[in-house]
Amino acid sequence: MEETSKIGFLPPKKNYYRNLKCERRSDCHDTLPDKQTLTNLWASTWGNAVKNNLKASWVRREQTRVSNVTAKEHSPITTVQVSRLIAETINWKVPGPDEINNSGLRGLLQLIHT
């Protein structure tokens, strides 16, 4: 259990997350990966085909439920939109289902602008 400070609050979570995978400070990487490394990472993550059971009962229920929904016109997402949304995030919030924290997204933002 973490020890509370004199005023009764737990230590900042920032330090906890920073040191989570680092036994020694020299193990931590403060530099951003290069563009090719990130491209390879996401290609290996999203580039693998996944086979789903399209005959599952829940799939049929969802198909029925959304059958009357009209398709929305496609509008591409711009780097300006992505940059603005990332800039509006708060750094040390709990990551969402993708497990990417906002400070990591801000690092990616720097790559977008290079």
Task: Walk me through what this model shows.
With 114 residues, the chain is an all-alpha fold. The protein has a domain at 76-114. Helices cover 42% and strands 0% of the residues. The protein is built from five helices and no strands. It has helices at 13-19, 35-46, 57-65, 79-87, 102-112. Helix 4 (79-87) packs antiparallel against helix 5 (102-112). The longest helix has 12 residues, at 35-46. The N and C termini lie far apart (42 Å). The mean pLDDT is 77.
List keywords for this structure.
single chain, 114 residues, mainly alpha, 42% helix
Please tell me what the overall shape is.
extended
User: H/E element string?
Assistant: HHHHH
Secondary-structure-based class equals: mainly alpha
- Major beta sheet summary: none
Strand content: under 5%
Topology:
Blueprint (H helix, E strand, L loop, with lengths): L12 H7 L15 H12 L10 H9 L13 H9 L14 H11 L2
Helix pairs in contact: 4-5
In short:
The protein has 114 residues and is mainly alpha-helical. Helix content is 42%, strand content 0%. It starts with 12 loop residues before the first helix and ends with a helix.
